[in-house]
Amino acid sequence: MNRPDGMRLSIARIMWMTLRGFKFDPLAFFMKVDELYGPFSYNELGPVRMWLINDPELVREISVEKAAHFHKSRLIRESIKPFIGNGLLLSEGDFWKRQRKLAQPAFHTRRIESYAQTMVDFTEQALAGWRDGDVRYIDREMMQITLQIVCKTLFDANVSGEAARVGTLLTEVLEASNERLNAALRVPEWLPTPRRQRQKAVLRELDALIGRFIEDRRRSGEDKGDLLSMLLEARDDNGAGMSDQQLRDEVMTLFIAGHETTAMALSWALYLLAQNPAALEKLQQEVDMVLAGRAPTLADLPHLPYGEMVIKEAMRLYPPAPGFSREAVEPTEIGGYTLQPGEMLTVSLWVMHRSARYFAQPEQFLPERFSKEREAEIPRYAYLPFGAGPRVCIGNLFALMEARLMLAAIAQRYEWQLVPAQQIVPQQLITIRPQYGIQMKLTQRQPVLA
């Protein structure tokens, strides 16, 4: 196969970089590869052939023009599919197209907007439990709120009783997916290790609970205004709906995609604001002026542009999904070189979002870069927190609305400072998580009314 000069790394070097660098710090690994070899590089390690791509034009080729030439990579499928099945995140081809068309009405703008009050209500309930001077892991707090929101909007269920158990089980499934994704050596599926047996038991219980939700809703036929109702009502061109297994897989996918990703976007936004008091003050001034002491509503969002800039800039520096991997299913030319079937490519949003090629002062937290005047200066496909092309995240409007409303509610009622002498280490898993959490000291505030 024709390979460009300088693009192949030595086997010894790539082994050292992969086994030591990728395993222990994949974010730093991808940054180093980009620094040494640029935004388009190729390497081999034994039978694995991988292209690393952090160039917006090549990302456009992969995600838009030639999206049908690629499937999700084996690494992602093997790590996540045992838990979430064949939902929109992992399905391919004609089946994916059918599922996407069936699910799309559930994410219509008007349907999503109807959840705004739920998002605010659960955030306000959480804030009512906070106290002046509290020290809390802010990432855990955000996870708890977004879990309550996803349970209510998906099942019309409060996080109590069975829904609370769903949340606990979901967290264990997410942890198991992360472990598999980050494992240096994959334990064979047939080996009944204690951890593997525990994971299977958790999955059986979660499947039974979700199955009961689906069965009860099918029996009642009631439209409760939640996402499950919309998915149950969806019909394809032949009048057929989703099977129980398809519904289960889509529900699990929505849990994974709609729970942790928004929580992490907010956690990193609060972390960045804590380090940038001028930005926090500007955000609070905007919130005070628009809300005048009341809770935020959907109608307020057009009048809270700085809050949107903060969320977008946080997702640039700490994209909830750190990147994506694809596997060629047929010979495909990308950037003048031919990828053969089975070869993988990886796009690191962490690298691309932090590249001086596309962003001025890339390591600085500058929400103003997403003002209406300046956002147009960002090269298209250089900023992709929700992906691109036909597989762009179906829940992007939901996530952005949720993050903006939650941020406004929090900024109105509290200030927060980082607890000293803690390690804040971003860790690449399914999302970019703070490895040891983020501890914040909370201080109640009163809105400054005009």
Helix content: 40-55%
CATH homologous group name:
Cytochrome P450
The profile of the biggest β sheet is: 5 strands, mixed
Q: Kindly provide the radius of gyration, computed on alpha-carbon positions and rounded to a whole number of angstroms.
A: 22 Å
Condensed summary:
This protein has helices at residues 11-24, 26-37, 56-65, 74-84, 93-103, 109-113, 116-128, 138-155, 162-182, 194-220, 227-233, 244-275, 277-291, 305-317, 349-353, 372-375, 396-413; strands spanning 40-45, 48-53, 70-72, 135-137, 323-328, 332-334, 337-339, 344-348, 414-418, 426-428, 432-434, 439-444. The chain is of the alpha+beta class and 450 residues long.
What does this structure look like?
With 450 residues, the chain is of the alpha+beta class. The chain has a single domain (11-444), classed as Cytochrome P450 (Cytochrome p450, Orthogonal Bundle). The protein is 52% helix and 12% strand. It contains 17 helices and twelve strands. The chain has helices at residues 11-24, 26-37, 56-65, 74-84, 93-103, 109-113, 116-128, 138-155, 162-182, 194-220, 227-233, 244-275, 277-291, 305-317, 349-353, 372-375, 396-413; strands spanning 40-45, 48-53, 70-72, 135-137, 323-328, 332-334, 337-339, 344-348, 414-418, 426-428, 432-434, 439-444. The strands form four sheets. The chain has a five-stranded mixed β-sheet with strand order 1-2-8-5-3, with helices on both faces. It has a three-stranded antiparallel β-sheet with strand order 4-12-9. Strands 6-7 form a two-stranded antiparallel sheet. A hairpin with a 2-residue loop joins strand 6 and strand 7. Helix 1 runs antiparallel to helix 2 and helix 9 (162-182) crosses helix 10 (194-220). Residues 8-12 have low confidence and may be disordered.
